[in-house]
Amino acid sequence: MKRWSLPAAAPAVAAIVFLLSTTAIRLAAAAAVEHTFVVSKMNMTHLCKETLVSVVNGQLPGPAIEVTEGDSVTVHVVNKSPDNITIHWHGVKQRLNCWADGVPMITQLPILPNHNFTYRFDVAGQEGTLWWHAHVSCLRATLHGALIIRPRDGAGSYPFPKPHREIPIVIGEWWAKDLAQVARNMSHNLFADYSSASTINGKLGDLFNCSGAVEDGYVLDVEPGKTYLLRVINAALFSEYYLKIARHKFTVVAADANYVTPYTTDVIAIAPGETVDALLVADAPPGRYYMVALPNQAPLPDTQTPEYSTRGMVQYSNDHNSGNGAAALRSSRSAEEEEEDGGPSGDVPVAPEMPDKHDTITSFYFHSNLTSLRHRRRSQVPARVDESFFITLGLGSICRRGYPACKRSGNNESLLVATMNNVSFQLPAVTTPLLEAHYYHTNAEDTLQVLPAKPPRVFNFTDRTLIAFGPKEGHLEPTSKVTMARRFRHGTVVEVVFQSTGLMQGDSNPMHLHGHDMFVLAQGLGNYDAAKDVARYNLVNPLVKNTVLVPNLGWLALRFVADNPGVWFMHCHYEFHLSMGMAAVFVVEDGPTLDTSLPPPPVDFPTCGHDNNQLHNEFYLATEKTEVLGINEV
Ligand code: C2O
């Protein structure tokens, strides 16, 4: 089995395998972490309704993978579900290992029902919280879990006080629906499906009940005075969330597995795809405090969709029978505090005051206040720029097949699509994944079209009146649908300014790039204006992220170095935007040397005919028979 980037010491210990390891055993040398993920359908009942959901190893959220920086990870995926699956290791840089990135038809063939696939990758040069998820449209709503990377020298070498315990907080959604059907509906331009609840660590919480039966909530037991590291992940399909715990503050210490300058706040804003590591000190009077996750959404005239807050609880350990704790809590609360919390305390846990669900500025401040920590792992932002892009993000329409000149603005003759620079992405109509075609230099790449470096027209991008259908947006609406990509010479420094527009919606856009981290130089509200905004670039300690949240009716400027050869997906992490085509492919060419070039696929990697793998015929035929659940079949 071929390994490309194992540290020199690794082979000696590669035999040390932790099967389904959940214990925090740490070794000085790199270890091999091995998991088996059995994907299957399981019945779960919430809100009086039984729903068949896809899960890994019967768990929701799925199993957490815990590693030490430098470890190599092997995950055997056994697909016992009726859907095609791939697993993406969100945020793992996959240096020289694009083959393990897990994007169907871009880096690999999907894993068909009753087939297996083994992912092998090293986790190097990153510390903090990442996550994994199915990269198959809506199925990721239940197929996901944490990926926790601890420093090689142990938790003692965190650049912050060593926490007493570490707690994953996975924010998600409960869908009382068949998500494969939801995905098909989205791919047919039907967007009337909504989740039924939000969840914290898979639990709906006591804001949800049916026929009087209250849903279980997530409970975090804390000891007074102790510090906890919350590893917060937004695994939801649709919304950014605000997370608060009554009477407590967070100190944010990392985001997307990069350390940040400690930032104290009472609210965390986290968009789909993002992760936030935050310290929580149990320094409130012993008692019970609600932890609330509230999904935000752009205000009217944007379409308002049903979205729900969820809550769990932080419970002090000496408060189990609530008597003493509640008394302590009562005696410590002032009248104004009683007022603020909405009434007398008694045994009622204290609830935080949440931002308004239409408040988008709190997220803007949260995101713009983060900077990277001066740390041995911190990479330097490149000063030079080789290629620049200005990419507008919005909606548009294309004519349905058979309607060459169609009526638009929501008419049935046209399809609503999501775009970058007025082009909407569609998966290539090929049977060979793009990475394989790229590696073997077939002409499949000829089907790709170039992602434009700027939008076709300049207009007032953030004009609110464009949000509602009308004559003004009408002439901006026509767009096209192609497989768009951009090739970069190895080592190219790319600068991208993303501009969220008001075209038929005023959403924010969490843009995720596979295989690379990005330096966030600046962000702002309204239209980007190079003449004044370049001066605001942070070239000293910019935040480093794999998912950047481009604010509602605002912009964000970033740089990244295209130095990881392969074919990398770049897309919005809102599932509806992705399914509507807000995506592109970045092809990074090989560098001049062996260790800057993409190695051949692993020996057991099923390909479409560029090796003599026995599997290939079987896979090829099965692909023809089975529907490939693409991201946007039109
Ligand atoms: Cu978290 Cu392309 O994905």
CATH H-level superfamily of the domain at 387-602: Cupredoxins -  blue copper proteins
CATH class of the domain at 387-602: Mainly Beta
Question: Which ranges are low-confidence, i.e. pLDDT below 50, for 5 or more consecutive residues?
Answer: 1-27, 320-336, 338-345, 611-634
The rough form would be described as globular
At the third CATH level, what is the topology name of the domain at 387-602? Immunoglobulin-like
Could you tell me the strand content as a percent range? 25-35%
CATH architecture of the domain at 387-602: Sandwich
| Number of helices, counting only DSSP H or I runs of 4 residues or more | 10
Largest pleated sheet: 6 strands, mixed
Q: Termini separation (Å)? A: 39 Å
* Ligand roster: CU-O-CU linkage
Question: From the structure provided, what is the oligomeric state, counting identical versus distinct chains?
Answer: single chain
Helix content: 10-25%
Commentary on this structure:
This protein is mainly beta and 634 residues long. Among the domains are: 26-157 and 603-628, Immunoglobulin-like (Sandwich), CATH 2.60.40.420; 387-602, Cupredoxins -  blue copper proteins (Immunoglobulin-like, Sandwich), CATH 2.60.40.420. It is 11% helix and 35% strand. It contains 10 helices and 36 strands. It has a 6-stranded mixed sheet, with no helix packed on it. A hairpin with a 2-residue loop joins strand 2 (32-46) and strand 3. The longest helix has 11 residues, at 615-625. The chain is globular. Residues 1-27, 320-336, 338-345 and 611-634 have low confidence and may be disordered. CU-O-CU linkage binds next to strand 6 and strand 35.
